[in-house]
Amino acid sequence: MAERTVAAIATPNAAGGIGIVRISGGDALDVASRVFVPARSSVVLRDLPGYSMVFGTVVDPAADGSGGTSPVDQAVCLVFRGPASYTGEDVVELQCHGGLYLMQKILRLVLAAGASPAGPGEFTKRAFLNGRIDLSEAESVMDLISAHGEQAANAAYHALEGSLSKEIRSVTDVFIAAAAHMAAWADYPDEIYEEELDYDVLLKQFRDAYDRLDALKQKFDAGQAITEGVATAIVGRPNVGKSTLMNRLLQRERSIVTSIAGTTRDVVEETARIGNVVLRLADTAGLHASDDVVESIGIEMARDKLEHSDLVLAVFDGSEALNDEDRDLLATLKERNAAGQPSVGILNKSDLGNVVSEEDLSPFVTRTIALSATDPDCYEQMRVLLEDLLGTADFDPSAAMLANERQLSCVNRAMDAIRDAIGGIEAGLTMDALSVCVDDTIAPLLELTGASVSDTIIEQVFATFCVGK
Ligand SMILES: Nc1nc2c(ncn2[C@@H]2O[C@H](COP(=O)(O)OP(=O)(O)OP(=O)(O)O)[C@@H](O)[C@H]2O)c(=O)[nH]1
Ligand SMILES: [Mg+2]
């Protein structure tokens, strides 16, 4: 398949010491030869082997219209030969001085020399289409770029190395072997007897595969808490110490704290890293009935956060008896709890003595804790609780991990089909019916790694990438 040769600026859209224009495709070396002149006249760019590097000048061939050229920048030119390159095609990278105008100009010259502009993620997409990496590994490239912490970066790196791909392939192999056996039986029923398929062995293999997928699924939320962060709302009635807790978790004074009820009116949002966990925190206005127009809007926003956050930190003043506002909140938390959405009941101001006990809150929330937001030690208390609640305490970034909802949905579909297959064997289903379940298991797993996936899904995956990657 003769793909057009594409080019893009691979470095950020900002001034920097070095800027890179990357060219990939069958004509990459021809295109580069038109705009780059090696300093040593004996060097012919087109003849260079892969992994070569030459110094020279980027030139503007059109500048004087006489067939001559005018110099634009000094640059280093890197040559990679397909298939041993990032994309699997011939790749040339021009490393220039990273001025914003300069980079745009050099890209224009490269496009004028015969390349087309690369779309978002096009280099990585070509790497996938050329079999250099699978789809889950391609997704990890983006995760690696967007990782905002060591654990997230570690996890993305191991995914790029294939930790998830290996696990999924090994599960898929079980079903491909079973499918092959069943197909052979269907084609040559006289030679291979149904009894040769040992159902007990199949059952054990299917159960084992199911458990392995289930383990990936169970770790999904913990992985997301580390890589994507957890949308978290801090809620409670006025003056219970929500903003004090917010600042404590951020370890800086972000929200305004006063002894006046109704201090916070807007939603104050900030990201906090607490141990292994990333919380996308929202400090909100105190929940209560208010006639004040501005405050009412803030309270509405707080209710919205309460409804739409993954995790709620509900703050109560443990030194005062619960009032109607507290009880309203607890009722809401109980509904969340029933829907499997976690919340933490926090009895604050424990330095002032506890009128309310953790047992009073525990029927309504996932976890309870008594603390003093004014005491720096409560940060550590919260870390231990959050890592335990979100399952990140023993997170192993080198283990296979599902990175996004697309991958999770593939695993869910495969698990449904395995469940049917196991049920089928137990119910004495015919081999034909069973082989449908096996095919239904294989399809989503091949979709996960991209071994067999629709163009639409490929487009969706790479649409989230940046241009130049
Ligand atoms: N003694 C004690 N006082 C606290 C504690 N936490 C907060 N406070 C005090 O309680 C008052 C209210 O704190 P804020 O953090 O502003 O409370 P809030 O819930 O954000 O209040 P609103 O924004 O008005 O809804 C302030 O005077 C804090 O210093 C605590 O653990 N112990
Ligand atoms: Mg506040």
Architecture overview:
With 469 residues, the chain is of the alpha/beta class. It folds into 3 domains: 6-118, Gyrase A, domain 2 (2-Layer Sandwich); 148-219 and 401-453, tRNA modification GTPase MnmE domain 2 (Four Helix Bundle (Hemerythrin (Met), subunit A)); 227-389, P-loop containing nucleotide triphosphate hydrolases (Rossmann fold, 3-Layer(aba) Sandwich). It has 16 helices and 13 strands. It has helices at 28-35, 100-112, 122-129, 135-146, 150-160, 163-187, 199-218, 220-227, 242-250, 293-308, 324-338, 358-361, 378-389, 405-426, 431-449, 455-463; strands at 6-9, 16-24, 36-38, 52-60, 70-80, 91-98, 116-117, 230-235, 268-274, 277-283, 311-317, 343-348, 367-370. The strands form 2 sheets. The chain has a 7-stranded mixed sheet with strand order 3-4-5-6-2-1-7, with helices on one face. Strands 9-10-8-11-12-13 form a 6-stranded mixed sheet, sandwiched between helices. Strand 11, helix 11 and strand 12 form a beta-alpha-beta unit. Helix 1 packs across helix 2 (100-112), helix 6 runs antiparallel to helix 15 (431-449) and helix 14 packs antiparallel against helix 15. The two termini are 21 Å apart. Bound molecules: guanosine-5'-triphosphate and magnesium ion.
